[in-house]
Amino acid sequence: MLALPDEINGFLFDLDGVVTDTAAVHAAAWKRMFDTFLAERNLDPFKLPEDYTRFVDGKKREDGTRSFLESRGVVLPDGDPDDPPEAETVYGLGNRKNALVLTLIAEDGVAVFPDAVALLERVRAAGGRTALVSSSANAEAVLEAVGLTGLFDARIDGVTARERGLPGKPAPDMFLAGAEAVGLPPSACAAFEDALAGVAAGRAGGFALVVGVDRVKDGAHGPSLAENGADVVVTDLRELVEQQ
């Protein structure tokens, strides 16, 4: 038996920082993109991990871009989702960042967290239903690259959110769509997140359990995850498999 409440049959996982070790790649891409933009305006550079954690982690690209720019007193037009990377718009900067992410992934590949795979395999073997709930528009490509597509019954990602007009995290809509996709109410689902916006979304959605996944060295991110809505914080998801 899993060390999780018996009433939980649905397991909704974020991707970056929970299943795949791509959060650092995203953080590096955000910094490179924003630093170039800020330097042209004589503004202080993007700070890691503070600015990443507070303003962009777990959010849709356009929401993260807008949130950080607002923190620096910069207002840009939203533009169009198909704006080219060189466009001086919210969508343009977001697409510039995405191009950098794809370059970094192509150069360095994608690592998978073994503890996440262990938990996914265990819950599926026990009859649980699984969904990926990620703000990333690249989620499908990343899953295919690491061979994990078969571990999820459904996928709600940045592409889905755009097609359906779903607000991004910290709004609960994407997680609620994930629960619906596996045919279960939030009260029968657990949400797994490493981002503050993500655990806040899980809490707002009324899920049975919100698990904060702290991948930061020495568990330094744990208190913030708990403050923002995590019921339990783990540094290794195997804790939820191996406890009896």
From TrEMBL:
Is the Nucleus keyword given for this protein?
A: no
EC number from the UniProt entry: 5.4.2.6
Identify the keywords attached in UniProt to this record, alphabetized. Carbohydrate metabolism, Hydrolase, Isomerase, Magnesium, Metal-binding, Phosphoprotein
Matching InterPro entries, A to Z? Answer: B-phosphoglucomutase_hydrolase, Beta-PGM-like, HAD-like_sf, HAD-SF_hydro_IA, HAD_sf, PGP-like_dom2
Molecular function (GO) terms listed? beta-phosphoglucomutase activity; hydrolase activity; metal ion binding
- Catalytic activity field: beta-D-glucose 1-phosphate = beta-D-glucose 6-phosphate
The enzyme class is isomerase
Which domain of life, per UniProt?
Answer: Bacteria
Per the UniProt record, one Pfam family is: Hydrolase
Q: Which cofactor does it need?
A: Mg(2+)
**SUPFAM superfamilies attached to this UniProt entry:** HAD-like
Q: Membrane spanning segments where?
A: none
The family this protein is said to belong to: Belongs to the HAD-like hydrolase superfamily. CbbY/CbbZ/Gph/YieH family.
Q: What is the name attached to this protein's record?
A: Beta-phosphoglucomutase
